[in-house]
Amino acid sequence: MSRTAAEIATQPACWRRAAEAAASFGEGLPRPGERVAVTGCGTSWFMAIAYAALREAAGQGETDAFAASEFPSSRAYDRVVAITRSGTTTEVLRLLGEVRGRGVPTLALTADPKTPVMEAADAVAVLDWADEESVVQTRFATTALAFLRAGLGDAVRGVPGVKPVAEAAVDAELAVTEPLPEAVLAAEQWTFLGRGWAYGLALEAGLKMREAAGAWTEAYPAMEYRHGPIAITGPGRVAWVFGALPEGLAAEVARVGGTLHAHATADPMADLIRAQRLAVALAEAKGYDPDRPRNLTRSVILSS
Least buried of 37, 149, 156, 245, by fewest C-beta within 10 Å? Predict the structure, then answer.
């Protein structure tokens, strides 16, 4: 078993621990009514997109998500949340410095307490039990999202299809062990779809497949699928939907000969585990090392 596969399997336990950590974290988490921006790079940016959509849907306040390099410095926020597994990513550290200079409270989520982000943010949630040896992020990303999601408390109960983190962890246990469908494993192309906060998870699924397996993947909001992306679907190609399946979409995928993959009753974050497992399986089938993907490093540190 690759190190990545082993780390993927630990996610249910990591999420439960994240929920406990959020409950006792205290100051630093976004407060109801605050205007919040969430940021990160790569996988962390996609987790930011998911959390931002979930927080707004829960009625907790206006929430935007940006790649750290594209943060609009002219906008005013009550709090900025940064996700950075390594704690060393150049764009995130630069942004935190700029925001702090304007007096905006900042929260960082990281896996390494011995990195510059500890001094760069006002509050830091150290999720070191979810750190990874693999270059490719899996469990840290979902654990960070579980922490932020748990921090929303009971507000998420009003969001359709969203479960408490403890229930999501139960779904995750099935996602870790359930065999992947042969048609999904044998496909040549995968399009990932999601609505609301699940769109961020769709983006992350596509990235994971590209990083680990060099696969041909795309990701879109689910309702946009019929506005062009369906053109790529056909025999041997998969449309993978996170969360609720939009009405009529299954028939559209069948009409063009594609394979539909959907676990409508499963927590979308748990379904992301299946996509992570698929990425590892495809990488191994191609003879790639999923722990050390081509052209990637654990952290992007730019020269000054």
Answer: 245
